[in-house]
Amino acid sequence: MDEIFGIPAPLLFGQLLLGLINGAFYAMLSLGLAVIFGLLNIINFTHGAQFMMGAFAAWMLLEWAGLGYWWALLLVPIIVGASGVIIERLMISRLYKLDHLYGLLLTFGIGLIIEGLFRNEFGSSGLPYRIPAELQGAWDLGFMFMPIYRGWVVVFALFACLATWLVIEKTRLGAYLRAATENAPLVQAFGVNVPRMITLTYGAGVALAALAGVLAAPIYSVNPQMGSNLIIVVFAVVVIGGMGSILGSVLTGFGLGIIEGLTKVFWPEASATVIFVIMAIVLLARPAGLFGRA
Amino acid sequence: MASETTADAIVPAGAAAQGFWGFTRPQLVALVLLVAALVVGPYFLYPVFLMKLLCFALFACAFNLLIGYVGLLSFGHAAYFGMGGYIAGHAAKVWGFSPEVAVLAGAAVAGFQGWIFGWIAIRRAGIYFAMITLALAQMIYFFCVQAPFTGGEDGIQAIPRGSFLGSVGLASDWSMYWFVAGIFLIGFLLIHRIIHSPYGQVLKAIRENEPRATSLGYRTDDYKLVAFILSATLAGVAGGVKALVFGIATLTDVHWAMSGEVVLMTLVGGLGTVFGPVIGAAVIVTMQNYLAEMGAWVTVIQGGIFVTCVLAFRRGIVGEIANLLRVKL
């Protein structure tokens, strides 16, 4: 079992793991986008910047306040999510009556502002963020060495996605949310404060992006552009999966991450474009996306 | 088939027949001012700056053809602009094409690319359309990073301007300026003509109410696809000319940030106005020129303009003027 399809096994499994990790980020980010889109009907172009803010917030907590990784996991989603609530109240909420494209343009502009401000303050080169002591080292799985932190990211992301799914599908709050996605005026007529729910939903989607940012901080270097390149791939993931179902987004995210990892092994030149090519094929075969409703 | 021919005949011929080439009187005044500015401009301003401005103005006009008249927001127009530049640059430098043929080659490839991408993207509308065009453009970006003929990070450098029709040398900025101004004016008038043709009327009908246009017997997807190809081709022209003006074609022109910039120019000038994209391009290019040494602040300011325009200034500069004067511009 040293070679599989003529590829050294450690290389293959290494890339598979990398693919799983990328997939974890795709899943978390596309999940947040789908939740926001469901209720607000806008595509949150600021999502990449908010992912980046999550990573920077973790770095700042450590460098400026001495609060480590575990505190960051708890505090960063709250802090960045609160900033999302402010953005929604001040700006996005003014656009609900207009064409949804204006929401896209507005959030794109907000993303530019945030990214520009961070680039001014921290420059374009990355800042290092250490892996917490508890998660350092690697397990020997027999066929490969698995860095503990990378395994942790995959498991934690799965857990976060599952928790989101449970909240939306199994709780009363989630039932309100699904009902408001279907018909907001009717839900409001039943006495549910829909505008507040919209605000909190946006905050929750942003918090999910920030949480992904904290997870990413020790893996990638923390830099202002880390979100903008990722978000375009996530858009393609969202188009492939369709935004109709929560589990669909998660499955598509992980699946595409793995496909991308495998492409790196078998045809490295195509690895940057493979997801976009899949998107084109899916659009030709199923325009609504794999899990979408037309 | 029969229904389609009748439907074509239903389109009012009046809209196209009124005025000179479909220009209303205020638009004619604005056109005269624009041509005057084109002629007088280089005596007052640096020709290279004006050429850059005209390239972006044509790019924004091409983009506006889609967003303003079909209601399709393409967030990946850099792919056609940049590819037009790469092809024109390669044709002029390696194959020794004369500048007008090189630009046409760039436009042809951009148009072909627009045909394929448009064919894929028009399956969805609205927000999805924007995301799909953005993702497809990112694919082109990665292709350009890797493809050997683009020169990767270095780009194609030292592209010769050559001589127009093989006889008029364009090495001096002055002669190049008239070449660029001529192409811009042709492109601008062409777009105006398209918008005011019966075909353009159908496009506007699709923008206003697509199901209704469909029920009248129009194959709306075909109309959208042709508009997409035209827009991509003209974006390719703009990119090709820009590559010849500066003698360089780089990754900047295919990057998503460029797609965002052209959206911004059109938004600032006024979506769906004939002259808006030109004014918007002038504003943004001038701003970039003055703020060039401020680094990332340019991004912040651009983002700020985006937010301001969307929240408080959705008509754009020309749209506001037109509204104030109660005319169409």
TrEMBL record, chain A:
GO CC terms, sorted: plasma membrane
What biological-process terms (Gene Ontology) are attached? amino acid transport
The GO molecular function terms of this record are: transmembrane transporter activity
Q: Which domain of life is it from?
A: Bacteria
Which compartments does it reside in?
Cell membrane
**Where are the bilayer-spanning segments?**
12-35, 42-62, 68-87, 99-118, 149-168, 200-220, 232-259, 266-285
Q: Which InterPro entries match?
A: ABC_transp_permease, BCAA_transport_permease
Q: What is its main location?
A: membrane
User: Which keywords does this Swiss-Prot/TrEMBL entry list?
Assistant: Amino-acid transport, Cell membrane, Membrane, Transmembrane, Transmembrane helix, Transport
- Write down the membrane topology: Multi-pass membrane protein
Concerning its family, UniProt says: Belongs to the binding-protein-dependent transport system permease family. LivHM subfamily.
Xref: PANTHER family: ABC TRANSPORTER ATP-BINDING PROTEIN, BRANCHED-CHAIN AMINO ACID TRANSPORT SYSTEM PERMEASE PROTEIN LIVH
Q: What is this protein called?
A: Branched-chain amino acid ABC transporter permease
Source species, please? Neoroseomonas eburnea
Automatic annotation (TrEMBL), chain B:
Query: Where would you find this protein in the cell?
Result: Cell membrane
Q: Which Pfam families match?
A: BPD_transp_2
Q: Which is a Gene Ontology cellular component entry for this protein?
A: plasma membrane
Asked whether the keyword Cell division is assigned, the reply is no
Q: According to its UniProt record, where is this protein mainly located?
A: membrane
Sequence intervals crossing the membrane? 28-46, 53-81, 101-120, 127-149, 176-195, 225-250, 262-287, 294-313
**Keyword Cell membrane applies:** yes
Q: Give UniProt keywords alphabetically.
A: Cell membrane, Membrane, Transmembrane, Transmembrane helix
Q: What's this protein's name?
A: Branched-chain amino acid ABC transporter permease
Q: Native species of this protein? A: Neoroseomonas eburnea
